[in-house]
Design goal:
Strand content: 15-25%
Number of strands: 5
Shape: rod-shaped
Helix content: 25-40%
Order of helices and strands: HHEHEEEHE
Largest sheet: 5 strands, antiparallel
Strand order of the largest sheet: 1-4-3-2-5
Distance between the termini: 111 Å
Radius of gyration: 43 Å
Amino acid sequence: MAFSPGDFPGACSSTCPPARPVPPFPPLRVGRDGDRLRRALRRRRRAIAAGLAVAAAALAVGGTEAQASRAAPPPEVKPSPAAVRTVSAPVRIADAATVRLLRPGDRVDVVAAERAGPPRLVAAGARVAAVPPAEQDARDGGALVVLSVPRDTARELVGAGTTARLAVTLC
């Protein structure tokens, strides 16, 4: 079915201007300003992350090789003083009832009572690391306790334990 201009009275008459081509214009971007900011921040974060990754890789690879190429000796790795100097020392205390009062984490002073002289302080402020269960056949009546002490103090405790009876006082 074909239509003629007279079928639609207001459609196009002789008073209509002639058709013109649409002029070129830039595309309209409505409501996209927030996207532009987000994209800029995302690009910036990616650039910073890439730069940090490159720097970390350079330090990881070049750090040890750079020292070797300069003929410098590698640095000495010293463990922390607390890790090296603190040891666990098992000590037999003369009074088993006193040992039953101790709990791991308590601080004690260890006193050596010798027959020939006055009592002397062997370890001050030693931390109780463990209290093993009581032995059923303890012949000398003492009880064992594990103390965390400096290495030098551990040597003194061992020496004092062979010549004197040891006692503890809670700090």
